[in-house]
């Protein structure tokens, strides 16, 4: 958060103690000028359809307003209304990218391959930037290096490197989702033996945002594990197979519907009926795989489905993401790996 220090009321000039949002003398908003500037900047961001920037600004405004006040509630509603635009805008961009140029269509199958290649390059150029972001921060890099050392001592450097990178990609999924929603957070800090964590400087505005941010980690983690599985299938290198399996297992563990784990955040935006659907999917995956971890996840999910706190309206995207992760991650964790 941008720190502003106002020590005088902009309205009546009386002294303002640090931390106050409303002048005790005249009840004027202490950060009135900054709030006006934010409103102007945010409207401009909305106009150029830069929704993450607009969301970020409105979240800053929330911190400068007394919670529960009329303006606070108005801006909170504004955030809720703006948020779906982040996804629809991203979809528009993806659709735009998918338009294959006419010369490529004329080239037939070869053109299609070329275009797909371009699509991957565009993806790497836009999304991969986010992947390296954390590495430029000393806190992430140093703790990551320390974790690597600990895992190296236990399992050798190849597996240790794969494991640390898998955890890193999972965490960057959270970072990417937070950035898209304009929520300020720290870079990932690795804790040897336990994974990594990100400290939020602002809180998601409700269960839906919590679910998007929570499930983004396992989704990126799933892609990391899938990539390792592909390399293993093509090359037969056993460490890659082991990393894919362990990566899948770690992400599965994180799907436990229990806050503060990622699955707990995902479950927050589900209705009771949706939770029972998830329970059925978990049970099915356990019957197929006999993976012991799934019994634990299943029991907690059932407990969660019976509990009093349930989302008011269904979040289809969160349910699809959760169940999709459950199915593919269980499948990956069952992959046979031949140890050299
Ligand atoms: Zn005043
Ligand atoms: Zn996570």
Which SSEs are present, and which pair or pack?
Layout: H1 32-47, H2 51-63, H3 70-98, H4 102-106, H5 109-133, H6 138-155, H7 157-180, E1 189-191, E2 195-197, H8 207-235, H9 238-254, H10 262-268, H11 272-289, H12 292-306, H13 316-333
Antiparallel strand pairs: 1-2
Helix pairs in contact: 1-2, 2-3, 6-7, 7-8, 7-9, 8-9, 8-10, 8-13, 9-13, 11-12, 11-13
Bound molecules: zinc ion (2 copies).
One zinc ion binds next to loops.
Structure, briefly:
This protein is mainly alpha-helical and 340 residues long. The chain has 3 domains: 1-85, no CATH class; 100-136, no CATH class; 138-333, no CATH class. The chain is built from 13 helices and 2 strands, in the order αααααααββαααααα.
Please indicate the percent range of residues in DSSP E strands (runs of 2 or more). Answer: under 5%
Number of strands: 2
Number of helices: 13
The N- and C-terminal alpha carbons lie at a distance of 51 Å
Roughly what is the average pLDDT, rounded to an integer? 84
Cross-sheet strand order for the largest sheet: 1-2
| Number of separate domains | 3
Name every ligand kind in the structure. Answer: zinc ion
What's the helix-strand series? HHHHHHHEEHHHHHH
Oligomer: single chain
General form: globular
């Amino acid at each position: 958060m941008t720190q502003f220090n106002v020590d005088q009321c902009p309205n009546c000039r009386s002294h303002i103690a640090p931390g106050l949002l409303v002048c005790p003398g005249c009840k004027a908003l202490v950060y009135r000028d900054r709030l006006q500037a934010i409103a102007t900047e945010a409207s401009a961001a909305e106009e150029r359809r830069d929704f993450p920037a607009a969301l970020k600004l409105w979240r800053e405004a929330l911190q400068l307003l007394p919670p529960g006040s009329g303006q606070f509630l108005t801006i909170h509603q504004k955030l809720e209304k703006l948020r779906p635009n982040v996804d629809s805008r991203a979809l528009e961009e993806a659709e735009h990218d998918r338009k294959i140029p006419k010369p490529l269509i004329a080239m037939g199958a070869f053109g299609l391959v070329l275009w797909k290649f371009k699509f991957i390059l565009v993806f790497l150029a836009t999304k991969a930037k986010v992947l390296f972001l954390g590495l430029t921060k000393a806190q992430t890099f140093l703790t990551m290096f320390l974790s690597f050392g600990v895992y190296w001592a236990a399992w050798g450097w190849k597996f240790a490197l794969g494991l640390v990178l898998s955890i890193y990609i999972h965490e960057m999924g959270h970072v990417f989702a937070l950035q898209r929603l304009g929520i300020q957070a720290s870079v990932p800090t690795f804790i040897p033996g336990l994974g990594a964590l990100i400290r939020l400087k602002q809180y998601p505005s409700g269960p839906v945002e919590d679910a998007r941010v929570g499930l983004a980690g396992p989704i990126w983690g799933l892609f990391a594990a899938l990539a390792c599985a592909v390399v293993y299938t093509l090359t037969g290198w056993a460490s890659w197979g082991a990393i894919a399996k362990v990566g899948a297992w770690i992400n599965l563990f994180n799907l436990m519907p229990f806050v503060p784990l990622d699955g707990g955040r995902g479950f927050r935006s589900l209705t009771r009926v949706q939770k029972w659907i998830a329970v059925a999917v978990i049970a099915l995956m356990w019957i197929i795989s006999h993976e012991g971890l799934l019994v634990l996840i299943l029991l907690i999910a059932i407990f969660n489905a019976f509990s009093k706190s349930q989302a008011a309206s269904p979040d289809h995207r969160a349910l699809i993401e959760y169940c999709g992760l459950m199915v593919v991650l269980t499948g990956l964790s069952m992959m046979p790996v031949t140890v050299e």
